[in-house]
Amino acid sequence: MSFWDWALAAYGRAGVPEACLALQDYHGQQTVYLLWAAFARPSDPDLAAGAELARHWDLSILGPIRQSRRALKAQLSPVSNEARIALREEVKRVELAAERLLMETLEALAPGGPSGSPLLALLRAGQAWGDPPPEAALQSLADRLA
Prior knowledge:
Structural class: mainly alpha
Number of domains: 1
Protein backbone atom coordinates (compact mmCIF):
# COMPACT_ATOMS: atom_id res chain seq x y z
CA MET A 1 0.00 0.00 0.00
CA SER A 2 1.34 3.44 -0.88
CA PHE A 3 1.75 6.16 1.71
CA TRP A 4 -0.92 8.21 -0.10
CA ASP A 5 -3.49 5.39 0.14
CA TRP A 6 -2.58 4.65 3.75
CA ALA A 7 -2.82 8.34 4.70
CA LEU A 8 -6.24 8.71 3.07
CA ALA A 9 -7.51 5.70 4.99
CA ALA A 10 -5.90 6.87 8.23
CA TYR A 11 -7.27 10.41 7.88
CA GLY A 12 -10.75 8.93 7.48
CA ARG A 13 -10.61 7.34 10.95
CA ALA A 14 -12.49 8.95 13.80
CA GLY A 15 -10.39 11.53 15.62
CA VAL A 16 -7.41 11.50 13.25
CA PRO A 17 -8.19 14.82 11.51
CA GLU A 18 -8.69 16.53 14.86
CA ALA A 19 -5.50 15.08 16.34
CA CYS A 20 -3.51 16.11 13.24
CA LEU A 21 -4.93 19.63 13.19
CA ALA A 22 -4.25 20.09 16.90
CA LEU A 23 -0.62 19.04 16.38
CA GLN A 24 -0.38 21.38 13.39
CA ASP A 25 -2.20 24.44 14.73
CA TYR A 26 -1.26 24.32 18.43
CA HIS A 27 2.12 22.60 18.42
CA GLY A 28 3.74 23.70 15.14
CA GLN A 29 3.97 20.21 13.69
CA GLN A 30 3.56 19.20 10.04
CA THR A 31 0.76 16.68 9.52
CA VAL A 32 2.12 14.99 6.39
CA TYR A 33 5.51 14.53 8.05
CA LEU A 34 3.97 12.97 11.18
CA LEU A 35 1.77 10.64 9.14
CA TRP A 36 4.79 9.62 7.07
CA ALA A 37 6.73 8.84 10.26
CA ALA A 38 3.84 6.70 11.51
CA PHE A 39 3.61 4.95 8.13
CA ALA A 40 7.26 4.42 7.18
CA ARG A 41 8.97 4.14 10.59
CA PRO A 42 12.05 5.78 9.01
CA SER A 43 15.59 5.73 10.38
CA ASP A 44 16.87 8.75 12.30
CA PRO A 45 18.83 10.11 9.29
CA ASP A 46 15.71 9.74 7.11
CA LEU A 47 13.61 11.45 9.80
CA ALA A 48 16.04 14.37 9.83
CA ALA A 49 15.99 14.63 6.03
CA GLY A 50 12.20 14.34 6.03
CA ALA A 51 11.87 17.03 8.69
CA GLU A 52 14.07 19.40 6.69
CA LEU A 53 12.08 18.76 3.51
CA ALA A 54 8.69 19.06 5.23
CA ARG A 55 9.68 22.22 7.09
CA HIS A 56 10.84 23.89 3.87
CA TRP A 57 7.75 22.69 1.97
CA ASP A 58 5.47 23.94 4.74
CA LEU A 59 7.09 27.37 4.94
CA SER A 60 7.44 27.89 1.21
CA ILE A 61 4.52 26.04 -0.33
CA LEU A 62 1.85 24.56 1.93
CA GLY A 63 1.72 27.30 4.55
CA PRO A 64 0.95 30.10 2.08
CA ILE A 65 -1.60 27.94 0.24
CA ARG A 66 -3.28 26.95 3.53
CA GLN A 67 -3.33 30.59 4.65
CA SER A 68 -4.99 31.60 1.38
CA ARG A 69 -7.59 28.84 1.67
CA ARG A 70 -8.42 29.84 5.22
CA ALA A 71 -8.64 33.52 4.26
CA LEU A 72 -11.14 32.62 1.56
CA LYS A 73 -13.43 30.93 4.09
CA ALA A 74 -14.99 34.24 5.18
CA GLN A 75 -16.98 36.54 2.97
CA LEU A 76 -14.73 39.13 1.30
CA SER A 77 -16.89 42.04 0.28
CA PRO A 78 -17.22 43.20 -2.49
CA VAL A 79 -16.13 39.84 -3.99
CA SER A 80 -19.16 37.73 -4.86
CA ASN A 81 -19.67 34.71 -2.62
CA GLU A 82 -19.93 32.39 -5.61
CA ALA A 83 -16.59 33.56 -6.99
CA ARG A 84 -14.93 33.37 -3.55
CA ILE A 85 -16.23 29.87 -2.90
CA ALA A 86 -15.15 28.69 -6.37
CA LEU A 87 -11.67 30.11 -5.83
CA ARG A 88 -11.46 28.51 -2.37
CA GLU A 89 -12.31 25.13 -3.90
CA GLU A 90 -9.55 25.60 -6.49
CA VAL A 91 -7.08 26.54 -3.75
CA LYS A 92 -8.11 23.39 -1.81
CA ARG A 93 -7.32 21.28 -4.89
CA VAL A 94 -3.90 22.94 -5.20
CA GLU A 95 -3.25 22.39 -1.48
CA LEU A 96 -4.11 18.71 -1.81
CA ALA A 97 -1.82 18.38 -4.84
CA ALA A 98 1.02 20.01 -2.88
CA GLU A 99 0.43 17.65 0.04
CA ARG A 100 0.42 14.65 -2.29
CA LEU A 101 3.71 15.71 -3.89
CA LEU A 102 5.25 16.06 -0.43
CA MET A 103 3.92 12.60 0.49
CA GLU A 104 5.38 11.03 -2.62
CA THR A 105 8.73 12.71 -1.98
CA LEU A 106 8.82 11.58 1.66
CA GLU A 107 7.84 8.06 0.66
CA ALA A 108 10.79 7.96 -1.73
CA LEU A 109 13.08 8.79 1.23
CA ALA A 110 11.83 5.83 3.26
CA PRO A 111 9.01 3.76 1.78
CA GLY A 112 8.57 1.48 4.79
CA GLY A 113 5.13 0.35 5.71
CA PRO A 114 3.13 0.37 8.92
CA SER A 115 3.86 -2.22 11.56
CA GLY A 116 3.59 -2.11 15.33
CA SER A 117 2.68 0.92 17.40
CA PRO A 118 3.21 4.29 15.73
CA LEU A 119 3.91 6.13 19.01
CA LEU A 120 7.67 5.55 19.02
CA ALA A 121 7.93 6.74 15.39
CA LEU A 122 5.87 9.84 16.22
CA LEU A 123 8.03 10.63 19.27
CA ARG A 124 11.20 10.28 17.18
CA ALA A 125 9.66 12.46 14.45
CA GLY A 126 8.80 15.13 17.00
CA GLN A 127 12.41 15.12 18.20
CA ALA A 128 13.73 15.32 14.64
CA TRP A 129 11.36 18.22 13.94
CA GLY A 130 13.25 20.16 16.59
CA ASP A 131 10.41 21.38 18.78
CA PRO A 132 8.65 18.24 19.96
CA PRO A 133 4.99 18.51 20.90
CA PRO A 134 3.68 17.15 24.20
CA GLU A 135 3.76 13.37 24.31
CA ALA A 136 0.03 13.34 25.10
CA ALA A 137 -0.73 15.05 21.77
CA LEU A 138 1.33 12.43 19.90
CA GLN A 139 -0.25 9.66 21.96
CA SER A 140 -3.68 10.93 20.92
CA LEU A 141 -2.74 10.58 17.25
CA ALA A 142 -0.98 7.24 17.78
CA ASP A 143 -4.06 5.78 19.51
CA ARG A 144 -6.21 6.68 16.52
CA LEU A 145 -3.69 5.30 14.01
CA ALA A 146 -3.08 1.98 15.81
